[in-house]
Specification:
The chain has about 350 residues and is an alpha/beta fold. It has 3 domains: about 100 residues, Response regulator (Rossmann fold); about 80 residues, no CATH class; about 140 residues, 2-Layer Sandwich (Heat Shock Protein 90). About 55% of the residues lie in helices and about 15% in strands. The strands form 2 sheets. A 5-stranded parallel beta sheet has the order 2-1-3-4-5, sandwiched between helices. The longest helix is centred in the middle third of the chain and has 70 residues. The radius of gyration is 31 Å and the shape is elongated. It starts with 8 loop residues before the first strand and ends in an 8-residue tail after the last strand.
């Protein structure tokens, strides 16, 4: 199915009707969509609010008390829409006022079609790049804040478990050792047996704590064994069926790839358990020439992909940001497909690197 690319839309703000229609005609001939023509500041603000254009081509001299420069300042603050000025005036004071609105271009009349085309293309590209940078910066700030929060929560959890479980065991052993010195009539074998039982429980607690932090099998046995383990753990805890399909005769992958894949699957399974109401989940590892492809799919209730992306950009979907960041760090791409009522698919594609290969 072909991907439909939305055309950039442009609003023309020009109080000379003939010139405005000519500019709109040129814009459409260049392949852009003309969303209308405004002859005043008030009309321009209404059309921007209604159509949310990709760019505004703004004449500085407009009918009414508010000129194009003042209008552009309000548009940038309220709608974050890029503005390219059109003017027949090149006076220094006009240029200085225009600079304050941070325009994406400044075209002097009369202008050629090539000049207009080049200015529009550069303005749209610059605005798109700035938007991507702003979204990325916002996501990184949210991710950094969340990393610190998760770090503190994890430290608190480990501290509590060490104090309440391991600390209690060690205290009990200490008491038993002190009692063995004072109670000469009590069997030393009984006390030793109790100490051994407490030490065994303490060792189980330490192993469980270490496994929760990072499964040792990820380092010892590799990604396939670790994914099979987490699949079984998730199925037992959450009640859905998990099927794991590894790569046949899979060699050990580079450590950073194995860690990223494991954490991405871990986050995906956590999200499925929390939100998906799924019955069946499938984890697949495949090799496509020189790339590793990882899939996590479910038959749950799905979700609105656009809303999820908006939450991720705003920093409200930290799990998704974390998965995307892990994918980026290993040179991969993470894609998520879902729609309400039809489940979801998380896919990671990254370069295949074996454990022996030098980074």
């Amino acid at each position: 199915m072909p991907v439909l690319v939305k055309r950039a839309s442009i609003l023309v703000v020009e109080d000379e009707a003939i010139i405005a229609r000519d500019i709109a005609s040129q814009i459409q001939a260049m392949g852009y969509e003309s969303v209308g023509i405004a002859s005043s500041s008030e009309m321009a603000m209404q059309l921007v609010a209604q159509h949310q254009p990709s760019l505004v081509l703004m004449d500085i001299q407009l009918n009414g008390p508010v000129d194009g420069i003042a209008t552009a300042a309000v548009m940038r603050e309220r709608f974050n829409v890029p503005v390219v000025f059109l003017t027949a005036f090149a006076a220094d004071d006009v240029l200085e006022r225009a600079k304050l609105t941070e325009p994406f271009g400044y075209i002097l009349k009369p202008f050629s079609e090539r000049e207009l085309s080049t200015t529009l293309a550069m303005a749209l590209y610059k605005h798109e790049a700035e938007t991507r940078l702003r979204n990325t910066t916002r996501q990184l700030k949210a991710l950094s804040r969340r990393v610190l929060e998760v770090q503190e929560v994890e430290r608190r959890r480990v501290a509590i478990e060490l104090h309440d479980e391991l600390g209690q065991s060690l205290t009990a052993i200490k008491i038993n050792l002190q009692l063995s010195q004072r109670l000469k009539d009590q069997s030393l074998a009984d006390i030793n047996h109790e100490n051994i039982r407490i030490v065994e429980d303490a060792l189980k607690q330490v192993r469980r704590l270490a496994t929760n932090l990072r499964p040792s099998m990820l380092d010892d046995l590799g990604l396939a064994a670790a994914l099979q383990w987490i699949a079984d753990q998730s199925a037992n805890r959450s009640g859905f069926s998990v099927r794991f399909c590894p790569v046949r005769s899979q060699p050990r992958l580079a450590a950073d790839i194995e860690t990223a894949c494991f954490r991405i699957v871990q986050e995906a399974l956590t999200n499925i358990a929390r939100h998906a109401l799924a019955h069946n989940v499938e984890i697949r590892l495949e090799r496509d020439l020189d790339r590793l492809v990882l899939y996590v799919s479910d038959d749950g209730c799905g979700f609105n992909l656009e809303e999820m992306r908006a939450r991720a950009i705003a920093g409200d979907s930290i799990g998704v940001l974390g998965m995307q960041e892990r994918a980026t760090l290993i040179g991969g791409q993470l894609t998520i497909e879902s729609s309400v009522g039809s489940g979801s698919v998380v896919q990671l594609s990254c370069p295949w690197r074996n454990h022996e290969e030098v980074h």
